[in-house]
Structures are given as structure tokens and as C-alpha cells.
Design brief:
This protein is of the alpha+beta class and 135 residues long. It contains three helices and nine strands. α1 packs across α3. It is globular, with a radius of gyration of 15 Å. InterPro entries: Meiosis-expressed_gene_1.
Length: 135
Amino acid sequence: MQTSGGQDHLCINPEIYCKKIQGTSVRSNSSASVLPQRKYQRHLSIAMATSLGARKPTSIQRPKRWSEEVEEAYRLQLAGYRDALEYHSVKGEIDRWPKSGYIKKLQRKDGNYYYYNRSRECADKDVNKIKLYGY
């Protein structure tokens, strides 16, 4: 998915979204590794998410209507995180509901938890408050 500025938009949920990869290299803690040239990379490892978590977003976009990407961003931003990359770099793996793939539980930065339902939680009135970050 392209943002208006032409940058790729990165999403972590592998069941729903893909990131277009064009031979980019990613640094892990031990050494640099090059991802294979594929049209879509379906799974991001924790090491890749951790190394990308320190990156700053290059664009911000506000959605006009609800989508699964907006739902994921809503749950993360309600817990105090910019996006899934930041959560992975701070807390690790995200707990998800098995069938829907939505986020089930997030730990806030103060140590408390947010628990979410299996169904949609982002109301239509809250959609325009969400920020979608592009990298």
C-alpha cells in the first residue's frame, strides 16, 4: 500500500498485510542480512521489528474510514504506542485473537494491561483520530 508521499507503508500483522520489499538490507544485533528479492515479504521477524522500531516515521496519514489496519493502529495507540514496531521494540510479541487476528492484549508502558474484544472496537467517530505512519 502506498502513502500519498510515495513511501511504503509497513504493517506487522502477517495475516492481513504485506510489506513490499525490494532488496533492502536489515541490520540485526549480530550482522547485516539481506532479505531476498520477493514482491511481498509476509512475515517480519522480531529481530527485524526491533531494528526497525528505532526508525522514525517519514509520513503520517489520517484515515477517512475504518479498516483492519485502522483497528490495529487504534488498539496500539490507545495503549500508548505509535505502532506495532514500537511495541515490538519495547515489549516484544503481541498477543492476538486466533480467528480474527486482532490484538488481544497489550501491556502499557506503566506495566498495566489493556484487554480487547474479538470484534471491532474503533468506533466511526474515532477513526479520524488515528494516525497511520509510513516508513
